[in-house]
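[Solved] Which block belongs to which protein?

Original post:
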Amino acid sequence: MPEPASEPASEPASEPASEPASERAPERGPRPRGRTTLLIAAAAVLGVVAGTCTGYLVQAHRGPTALPSLSQPTLPRSTGAGPAPLSAAQDRRVKTEGDLRKLLLRRPDGARNALLPRSTDGWLDLAGYSRMFTKPDVAFSYFIGEEFRRAAITQWREGDREVDVLLVQYRQEDNHGASDVVDDADSYAEKDPGTDSWAIPGTGNGTAYVHASGGSYSAEAHAWRGDIAMEVWVYDTKPVPKKKIMDLAERQMERL
């Protein structure tokens, strides 16, 4: 690096005594670039030039090298019929593109209709689904952003216990709607006081929650697979057993 054109008139005789030695800058006087450095640099440049010229001379006296052929050998075609297409039982898209209501859990024998039915035919449009939330207008906008496609619901009542099971499908063209809404649902569920939670076996991403606070008892479970988010809600006048919510969630996920 070139040195400054001029130097200070004088250097301080010594560093302040109060300054620790480890924090002082090292003393660096100006050092002019010597002739030895210039000679080494010039020799290096001449060496590169000489090497380049020699390379050109050697190559000029060599004969031309034949280039490989541009044509490629013809590959034999397979004579097999190829893999067989998946059956309807193996192809998950066949199930999820069909009637979602057929994938919902069956109502237990002896169960009665829910006190607050959400649907008359098992389907929920975006408006009907949004009304299940405390702020329907906010929910409506949120699920539009998450590319809501359709939802199916089944409900029943056993004694004082109410059960709602939903499958909500998302288009997932620009967002990962199913996983996004499950993550959001988990964050809300975990904040409720008096909550216990457990991972749902076999899902890899599902969680079940049991709430018991303020004299009200409920449980919920959330998981997703592909473009479908699963929701299970249980309300009761007494604590909901862990076994109950886990059983519902596991059996529902097995059907997806």
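(Second protein starts here: sequence line, then its structure tokens.)
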Amino acid sequence: MVLAEKIEEIIGLTPVYRIIALASGVGKTSLGTEIVKHLTSNGVKLAVIKQTHEKLLDELSDPGRYKLAGAETVFVSSPELSVIYREPFTGLKEIIISMKYYPLIIAEGFSGSHIGKAIAIINDPDEINELIKVEKGLWIIVSNDLDIVEKSKSIGFNAFLMDETEMIANEIYKDAVRLIASKFSGDPEVCGVGSWIELAEKILHGLLQPYECPFAYPLKIFVDGKLVELDRKTLRIIAGMLEGFVSGLIETTVKPKKIKIEFDLSGEKE
């Protein structure tokens, strides 16, 4: 598994695939948009994160004027789109944990972040060795040069030509299904599916949320130190309600990893 265990805990059940290159202007956005088209046309719900060094804030626009006036965050909402202007994030991990849950993320850029798996566009064979040094998550190599593709395959990488975007999208889909399914254990029928692969596919298509299966968010309720036995459906409902309620109470964009509630009905003071 490419993702480190600590990072997996933070990101949760979201497979991340980064499109990277050592040079600019090699077609990262073109490759990314084609991959996104193939995945979304098959019903996959995903988010895209793009790293850019271009200036985003227009000081003469209304949002720019509010930001320059001192507002820490400016939220612009229209019938077409919502845009948030705020201080820059420090890295890919912070961006992901600040977002609402998406079952899959395609990121353009963020080379060397070690989050998720990297899809590298290469035009020079020497770039492979350079990337291996900095990219622990190097997974797929893409090139317009057939010799580079064949060489990459010979040393153990998945490799494709630039126009084989549907094949790349299929590899991403299969890998995402495997990654999500690997997070669950036990009897999948408890979650209303025949297999964890089926559950993973439903999550990727937005038909189920991970918390709807108790194996994703285990919940135990104790009364006076005694574990209360509840059926799986009830546990799923309580877990979902608690997550939504607590998320609304805390003033942070970071999703809590563990919630502990103590309620003393005795009225006695400690």
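Accepted answer:
You had them paired correctly. Confirming on the second one: Residues 39 and 256 are 29 Å apart (CA to CA).
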